[in-house]
Amino acid sequence: MLAALVLALGLSMDAAAAGAVRGLTARRIRFVDVALLAALCGGLQGGMAALGWLAGARLGHAFERVDHWIAFGVLGLLGGRAILAALRPGAAAAAPVDPFALRGLVVLAFATSIDAAAAGVTVPLLPVAPVVALTLITVVTAAVVAVATPLGRALGARLGGKLELVGGLALIAIGTKILVEHLTA
């Protein structure tokens, strides 16, 4: 059980960081925003791990070769868009982008869950039933994101200023971290 919990916590960290960035750049956070982001991240994390488990070792190794590049590209694009929006003249006066818009949340949840597909191949090796491991991955990710998002908002309230720039840099950093971890493993 401990191995499954450690896997769940490890897989949830990228989603937690992304949730904190969303909170950081938000002007306000509603309970429904946090719940939606947590559900999407948890659901996609568990779902992608389940796909990896079902695909088995044969497809898992092939996907593992490119999953980090996909996550890096998607998070880099999201981060780049945020940075460009922050640096655009008159960005502060422009209508703010909703960090909890459904489309953006789905893309973010997907990008942070890509590595779970490759990790899902290891689910049968854990000393618990695969359903227990997948449930842990889903629930732990959702809980960690639900905590990290308002913490990011609390930090954002203290920092003020061009938080969209900080958020964009953070998303690029998360994508870079994923890429470096896979390339140096």
Helix content: over 70%
SS element count, helices: 6
The gross shape turns out to be: globular
- Low-confidence stretches are none
Mean pLDDT equals 84
Task: Using the CA coordinates, give the radius of gyration.
Answer: 17 Å
Order of helices and strands: HHHHHH
The strand count comes to 0
First CA to last CA: what distance? 25 Å
Class per helix and strand makeup: mainly alpha
Q: How much of the polypeptide forms β-strand, as a percent range?
A: under 5%
Largest sheet: none
What do you see in this structure?
- The chain has helices at 2-25, 31-64, 67-87, 102-119, 130-159, 163-184.
- With 185 residues, the protein is mostly helical.
- The model has no long low-confidence stretch (mean pLDDT 84).
How are the SSEs placed, and which strands pair?
Elements: H1 2-25, H2 31-64, H3 67-87, H4 102-119, H5 130-159, H6 163-184
Please describe the structure with a list of short key phrases separated by commas or semicolons.
185 residues, mainly alpha, 6 helices, 81% helix, 0% strand
Summarize this, please?
This protein is mainly alpha-helical and 185 residues long.
